[in-house]
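Sequence only, no structure available. Ideas?
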Amino acid sequence: MELQQLRVFREVARELSFTQAARNLHCAQSTITGQIKSLESSLDAVLFLRRGRYPIELTAAGAVLESRVDQILQAVDTAGREVRGAADRRGDLGRRRANCACPHPLQSVQRRFPSVTVGAGQDSPAPSVDHP
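Reply:
I predicted one. Tokens follow.
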């Protein structure tokens, strides 16, 4: 599970429309569809009932993810801000040690959502969220 997939899911769940979510996120509908399919594959769950073009609705699994997605994304954003703040206070040494400052906020996400793994790597362009 990747953060971008969660952001796309959140938008589709809010709009209950792949087309409107694509407009809101300024990307092609095929991109939205691909992100949702990848997310469903990684979770081994169908998140939306698709009945032709309109309307779509959340499945029970989709409703569970919708109830958690804002918390997950907020926790990751908070962890990122805390890490960047620590790095800014320490200069380059802090940037190298950012991984040391990161576990505490990420561990709180892990405790709240035990089936989700959150991590950020040095070479990674963005943090990622993995689900077994």
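The longest strand covers residues 48-50.
Hope that gets you unstuck.
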